[in-house]
Amino acid sequence: MFISLRLAALCFWVLLLDLCGIIKTLGQSNGSGVVRVVVEEGSDAILPCSLSTKENAEEKLFDWKKDGPKEIFFYDGGLHYNNGRPGQDHQFKGRVSHFQDELKYGNASIIIRNTKVTDSGNYSCDFPRFQPRQIFNIQLLVEPILKDRSADTRGASPEPSVKILNQTQDWSLLQCEVLGASPKPTVEWQDSAGNKLPAEEPQVSERGGSFYIILQTTVKKTDNYRCVATQEEIKHQIYTETYVYICEKLFEDTCSRGDVTGWFGGIVLGAVILAAVQASLVATKRITVRCNKGATEEREETWERDMMTLSRACGPV
Ligand SMILES: *[C@@H]1O[C@H](CO)[C@@H](O)[C@H](O)[C@H]1NC(C)=O
């Protein structure tokens, strides 16, 4: 189980390295003279275009368009969309450049930065005044990746809401709720290393075509836990993280200072426990913060909530 997860993680990285930013030009020409460029969403794409004569294009005119009329990049003897010429499609503003140093070799390729899935389409690179006229066709495919699309995709799962249902010194019962998502998301709990945690059967209900999912898990270690909702069909993934502190460790390895021995130690320990019982929330927070220094970088609200649960669970030691 563990090994296969590690292997999966490794494969994932290898795949990512392979895809990230690397532009795969699949065959210069696939019969129809169309060059195909495939990139991963968010990376940059270079769309190739070179005069067959390789002659200097610095004083020439060339025009890049998409799906017919959409103006992507226009160059006319030094004047272009990035130095004052108006007319560029607003979707491409600030994302397209040519390669000035390459022009003298007849290379009028462009780069589109931070590609979006909607950049996919058929591009043309046209030298309208050239005799004979030269026009090149490039097909761009931007492959979507898994990411948070809740802001711009209908039915994308909102951030899961996470709470600690019950806590003892040895374990915490965590609940994750995904409220209203379509298509049906998969929901899972993960530890900070990304391992999927064993969990109860999810409780799934459907209302008006939207899915509501509740997933509980019991954890026994202090860690950052994530509830992750994924909708592979729309390439959407979103998570909520929560810090769980298991009290058991409070008087052991993580926090003990010095050796407390004998009856004197017993009295001191008793006093400490008494103080802990009587401590205000503020005091509890301070002590705990010190115990965990360096180990936490939490969102304030989650922290507060955990601390309240902690003070409740740790109170009657
Ligand atoms: C044109 O320039 C781009 C950017 O430097 C480069 O990637 C591409 O290989 C060049 N094409 C040719 C045919 O030299």
Strand content: 25-35%
* Mean of pLDDT: 79
| Helix/sheet category | alpha+beta
Low-pLDDT sequence parts: 7-30, 254-270, 279-304, 308-317
Number of helices: 4
How many extended strands?
17
Largest sheet strand order: 1-2-10-9-4-5-6
Question: What is the C-alpha radius of gyration, as a whole number of Å?
Answer: 29 Å
The succession of helices and strands, N to C, reads HEEEEEEEEEEEEEEEEEHHH
Q: What is the makeup of the main sheet?
A: 7 strands, mixed
Give your account of this protein's structure.
The protein has 317 residues and is of the alpha+beta class. It is 19% helix and 33% strand. It has four helices and 17 strands. The chain has helices spanning 2-19, 262-278, 281-291, 300-314; strands at residues 24-25, 34-40, 45-47, 61-66, 70-76, 79-80, 96-98, 110-112, 121-127, 134-143, 161-167, 172-181, 186-190, 203-207, 210-219, 223-231, 236-244. The longest helix has 18 residues, at 2-19. The model is unreliable at 7-30, 254-270, 279-304 and 308-317 (pLDDT under 50). It binds 2-acetamido-2-deoxy-beta-D-glucopyranose. The site of 2-acetamido-2-deoxy-beta-D-glucopyranose (NAG) has 7 residues, from loops.
What is the secondary structure topology, with strand pairs?
Blueprint: H1 2-19, E1 24-25, E2 34-40, E3 45-47, E4 61-66, E5 70-76, E6 79-80, E7 96-98, E8 110-112, E9 121-127, E10 134-143, E11 161-167, E12 172-181, E13 186-190, E14 203-207, E15 210-219, E16 223-231, E17 236-244, H2 262-278, H3 281-291, H4 300-314
Parallel strand pairs: 2-10
Antiparallel strand pairs: 1-2, 3-8, 4-5, 4-9, 5-6, 7-8, 9-10, 11-12, 12-15, 13-16, 14-15, 16-17
The structure holds 2-acetamido-2-deoxy-beta-D-glucopyranose.
